[in-house]
Amino acid sequence: MKYPAFKFAATITSLLLVAGLVGQLLFNSKPPPEEVAEAVLGNARNLKIVYQQWITQAKQNGADRNLVLALSYIKVSRLSPPKLMDRCGSISPTEPCLPR
Amino acid sequence: MRLDLTDGTLSAEVNGLPNQDAFDLWLVDNGESSVKPEPGDAMIRIDRFQHEGASAKLRTSLGPEVLKNFKLDLVVVARAGKGPGEAGILFGSPSFFQRLYYSEQGGQLIGLADFDESSGPGTENQSPLWAPFSVLIPSPAYAADTADAALARAVANGERVFSKEQFNGNGRTCATCHRSERNLTIDPKFIATLHRHDPLFVGEFFEDGDGNDTNNIRCTDPVKSLGCKFEHPKLMRKFGLILENVDGMDNLEKKFVMRSVPHALALNTSLQPATSGLPEMIGWSADGSPTNTLRGFAIGAVKQHFTKTLDRNPGTDFRLPTEAELDAMEAFQLSLGRQRDLDLKTLMLNNKRAIKGQSIFINGNGKPAPFDGTCMAYHNNAGATTSFGSLANSNFNTGVEDRRDSRTVRAIIDAGIPRDGGFGNSVTDPTGCIAPSSHCGFGDGTFNTPPLVEAADTAPFNHNNTFDTLEEASSTILPISLTISVPVASLIWVTLRLLRLPHSFASSMCWRTTA
């Protein structure tokens, strides 16, 4: 063996690499998708405020007794969409609606 | 549709259905599959609508058998004789808040709904037995003991889905366009910094004859590329515009528009519907969601932007979101940014120019309406609604599509891009031409009022990035007698400082085109 030390080091390195790969496969600690603990951009406190506002409104609207769902059209279904009224009381495709 | 949760009485009323056709109401339980009605889902045909004048009505009682192992994920109005998957035309689904609320009511969560603001917790609780049909409403898909925990988990999971989930598609995520480092929008300057293999450019990915991959910016002879019917590379890179088939995907050659990426901040302040119309107003023309709700927005976005091919087949080109993912994304998006509008009239500023701008914004130029130039009328408290009472969240024709003085608009016209008709899909025909062409579009020409508070850091502006800067927007849109952009811009800056907002405040855009 011309370079026994080199060969030994190479063998050890290879073994470590293999062990590392096996370990990575066996013990990969990547959390399952549902296990994200905290938001960075999102703000749960904000959402709580919105939810509390929603609850107040929902109770006033009788949500304790009735579930109300809006049935909405699909834009590409060729049905006429519900009309949105501007301040003029009509939709004007070419002119901006100015207040009366 | 209204369901009495105590006795199972179900009533529904729909306007505008063709009188000569028959329609059925269906309830759908999606189970663990996607949000689309599909084989394997539990579907119950409830009854047929009866036409009464311009309305179609239905009233029936659900039997107790429906309470056994059924969750109401979808309500669908479909043409009679066919199932909701193939013939559904109207859709409704419980929102995340509704799911959470009825979970609390049913005793599955200890939470905020038990708390009555006027008299303290527990005083007006209803027993779960009081409303037996409330068990039909599915719970949010997050195991949690309290509503607080459910909210936190939903927001966190929504953020993960928003930023990382590719839905088995072409590599894009929601965050491909809604960049967190750009206030959840995207602009040409930022696009120029992206690697050529960024998923944003997936429409350009191209292999030449020698097997080299490259970007096909000119979009000629696309090979193994989604191509120019998927994105318009030049307009994307130069103006930050994204191709949208908002009026349907039946004619990809001519039926599309180029739109900017709206930020997703403060959505809670801009979703409320106008007096008649959609459940929620979302997207540049207010009808950007296939279900016309924030919850359903992701469904359309995945189909539009995440697909591997232009066939857009769910299951092979992408997968549709699950109810749990829609729950999460709805929660996450509602949690972003401001939760209410400012009171601009009482807002104290400490800069003279800003105070002057504030006055102009609120009071206009002193002329009688409609020439008074009040920005406040159209952007109440610099928000996304008008000050017109019940018509607050209305659409308007901004005239932007006709701004030939805008280099963006000119570039769009020069590229032969169809006119953006905004809301709806009726044929807009302002010049007597036949749509689709470079002059006509689909829609009534109106767009929804955008919020201004976030504008300072979300340029460019408008549904097609017409204006690059606040100054440009204000000086070109404000009436000639009111082209005082600097004070208004100062208002933006100073208010930003006062409120300690991390980023944006404001803009000076007033949708007035004549004086």
Number of helices of chain A: 2
User: What is the general shape of chain B?
Assistant: globular
The fraction of residues in strands of chain B falls at: 5-15%
| Total of domains of chain B | 3
* Apparent shape of chain A: rod-shaped
Q: Which structural class best describes the helix and strand composition of chain A? A: mainly alpha
- Tally the beta strands of chain B: 18
Given the helix and strand composition of chain B, which structural class is it? alpha+beta
Question: Which pair has the most extensive contact?
Answer: A-B, 57 and 101 residues
Largest sheet of chain B: 4 strands, antiparallel
- With strands numbered from the N-terminus, the spatial order across the biggest sheet of chain B is 1-2-6-5
Q: Overall mean pLDDT score of chain A? A: 66
State the end-to-end distance of chain B. 45 Å
Largest sheet properties of chain A: none
List keywords for this structure.
heterodimer; A: 100 residues; mainly alpha; 2 helices; rod-shaped; B: 515 residues; alpha+beta; 3 domains; 4-stranded antiparallel beta sheet
How would you describe what is shown here?
Chain A is mostly helical. Chain A has helices at 4-27, 44-60; strands at residues 66-68, 72-73. Chain A has a domain at 1-26. Chain A is built from two helices and two strands. Chain B folds into three domains: 1-139, no CATH class; 154-334, no CATH class; 352-397 and 446-499, no CATH class. Chain B has helices at residues 84-87, 96-105, 147-164, 188-191, 233-239, 294-305, 323-334, 352-363, 375-378, 407-414, 470-477, 485-499; strands spanning 2-4, 9-15, 23-29, 42-48, 50-52, 55-61, 74-79, 88-92, 115-116, 120-121, 205-207, 213-215, 242-244, 257-259, 395-396, 427-428, 441-442, 447-448. In chain B, strands 1-2-6-5 form a four-stranded antiparallel β-sheet, with no helix packed on it. Chain B has a four-stranded antiparallel β-sheet with strand order 4-3-7-8. In chain B, a hairpin with a 2-residue loop joins β5 (50-52) and β6 (55-61). In chain B, α3 (147-164) packs across α7, α6 packs across α7 (323-334) and α8 crosses α12. At the A-B interface, α2, β1 and β2 of A face β1, β2, β8, α2 and α3 of B. β1 (66-68) of chain A pairs antiparallel with β1 of chain B.
